[in-house]
Queue: 2 jobs
Job 1
Amino acid sequence: MNRLVLGAQWGDEGKGKIVDILSEDADVIVRYQGGSNAGHTVCIEDKKYILHLIPSGILHKDKICVIGNGVVIDPASFLEEKRALEELSVNIENRLMISEKAHLVMPYHKVLDEIKELQLGDGKIGTTKKGIGPCYVDKYNRVGIRVCDLLSNDILKDKIHTNVEQVNKLCDLYKIERFDADKIFKQYKEYAYELKDYIRNTVYYLNGVVKNGKSVLFEGAQGSLLDVDFGTYPYVTSSSPTVGGAFTGTGLSYKALNNVVGVMKAYATRVGNGPFPSELTGETGEEIRQKGAEFGATTGRPRRCGWLDLVAVKYAVMLSGIEDIALTKLDVLDEMEDVKVCVGYEYEGRKIGYIPSQLEEFAKCQPVYKTFKGWNKTNDISQYSDLPKEARMYIEYIENFLGVRISIISTGAKREETIIR
Ligand code: GDP
Ligand code: IMO
Ligand code: MG
């Protein structure tokens, strides 16, 4: 059984925790898009691990993890993550592979990311400033530097010099300090030395894994509403977290995929800018932020919080063929008097049940809510039938609305705080 776990909202749905649980049944776990903009948290016993580039499956000591070709890799971030894992007694040696086709995030990508945001002023995206957008721009502009380029000094040097020459023209334009190509080359040669043992043709490797009847778990980063094609463009990330990204980002075909799991919080959050119709800007939003510890795992920014938006999730279900939902952070809504879900939007006096493509239209959409009576406590419960009746009503309403089963319910950050139905 090859599964895909992806975010059904705006990211930070709890994918790390769900991937950690589902990794148990997989042989190989592969990341297919995004980069170190992701922050996937896994809590095991009293330890907290935050993964950015390395698949969350790495915490299972007998699993192989792959950083697929669709991911953009910042070597500095990778090495820092490797060291942080080692400090927590997690060794990645001999069980991590990096695709030779993956693109490298370069120092100038991070600076260009910052400059672009500054230029946008109030209209800024609110990126993580990890250089993700500019790196994918180079990829699609066919001037990117790939992991395999690290293996040849001549090629690496040549590409860095060519790119830096172009970037420095922009630096002059923006009146910022120029980049030194030789210095970057020297730095990346050192990275090459540290990375070389991980570099593989993961496309052939992964296809071999599937052919030999072993199972693969695809780990999505970000979320469906941040997808560059289907999200709230331009307030999106620069990759495809939805199902298509899993194929282009690994080299596995659609035939290799048997099940798509969408991870969805019991409410909604968004980091960065862009429309968010069910956002709660007052006290309730603050209460959710505090109870849910909704602060970014990558940037530490407070996350915007709101009620669950079922129109958005239903769209994500449609886009990726989600068959199962993992509902997370149900416990955060414990003890609330009532709980709302957005079941439609009101746009210019009309009720609509879809997400308009034009941002200006979406920004004007007002949420239409259905209100549920709150419940007491969901934490420490291991059987679905033992959940408070009100919580079950909430869950079953969502299942009916989405037409998808909710097969995993998470009521706390730890592995054991999970109900499998
Ligand atoms: P990801 O990016 O989708 O992996 O999600 P993040 O790790 O950025 O954010 C999810 C946060 O919620 C992390 O701090 C998790 O430890 C935590 N978490 C996951 N599931 C639950 C849950 O069911 N209840 C609570 N209270 N916290 C959870
Ligand atoms: P995980 O995998 C939530 C958001 C940023 C910004 C937009 C573009 O942990 O769910 P980028 O740096 O990608 O160019 O920023 O996307 N964003 C995320 N939001 N979770 C993430 O990852 C995100 N990765 C990027 O906040 O709004
Ligand atoms: Mg996250």
Job 2
Amino acid sequence: MAKGARTALLAGLSVIAASWAPGAFAQSLAISCGAVGMELRLCQEGAAAWSAQSGIPVDVVSTPNSTSERLALYQQLLASGSGDIDVFQIDVIWPGILGTHFLDLSDAFSADEIGAHFDAIVANNTIDGELKAIPWFTDAGVLYYRRDLLEAHGHDRPGSWEEMAAIAADIQAKERAAGNDRMQGFVFQGNAYEGLTCNALEWIDAWGGGQIIEPDGTTSVNNPRAVAAIAEAASWIGTISPRGVLSYQEEEARGVFQSGHAVFMRNWPYAWALGNAPESPISGKIGVMALPPGGEDGQATGVLGGWNLAVSRYSNQPEAAKDLVRFLASFEEQKRRAIVGAYNPTIAALYENQEVLEANPFFGDLYDTFTNAVARPSAVTGTRYNQVSTEFWNAVHRALSGQATAEAALADLERRLQRLARGWQ
Ligand code: GLC
């Protein structure tokens, strides 16, 4: 089986469980891993290292870059009760949506092993007292900038989003006038998917406009600060950001920035290692800072992202699968992934590790950004989170693309969310 089924998963097709023949791969495991940046390679290397010590081969199944597409695929696969994939790499926003399909890992890991990870992530992954996934790497949105360009044009790092836009406009105009006609001021994730939810929540939080749905379940998104934040972002489209940004995900933004064609980029930490690789045209020219405040009395921000490892309830080899998770989420493996790929550890002690900090100096400078990142409202909305997020990113996308004003988009969104809110209130 599994070959065909796994290929189907890869291709994003839905017929997954049909070809499963029990026992066909009794001696091998399958893990689904992301493939953004260096993720796939690092997962393959980690899995191979575990195989070498356990003697159990591991198939690494790659998944679509869009976390929203990945969720749809996982839902199809898990709903069919298929044991094709033993270990799932799951987004920090999914324990509530997918948790019923995963084993409780609290007994398989010692209190010390669990306690080494950030408490907030362990709490996030705990549903009704069951630990549904072990933290693997954490994420927070950060602002990348071209140190060389800011310096050449006499600018300091921006102290606010409005300043970012002004600096971006200035450098974009001057670079284009100097013949650098592909230069863009700012690139980010503007496609209608989960990544836009992250970007837009960051704008709203920077303006002090709340968390879309508050931890007590109230819909807060239609407020003047949130409107101001989204209106500001809409003003970037076609000015400092190309219209094409409306279809960018992480890798498209990184592609433009890394090829030297953008002054600023919002992305996750992984872009650091790739941008500074020897073959990168901008190697050594990159700065990273927290996303700045916006509006009158806003705050610096960054949305909490990150990925965790869960064991499928339908796995035929749950014990081996748990051992693979233990290995991949370990101190040594998280250290390797941090040094090679700038994937943020979930183990606090690694932020004091010299080699990790040498490879990623901003892990130290932005420690507070990583540990205090603003969470999307996935805990409070539970199984409805993806519907909430879909409504949110669609509303923001309409405002960014000029189909609605920020006011109208958020007022309409509020009505839709209040209807959905019956599911969690
Ligand atoms: C990153 C984050 C994840 C988020 C996704 C959105 O992968 O780690 O939490 O949902 O980006 O694109």
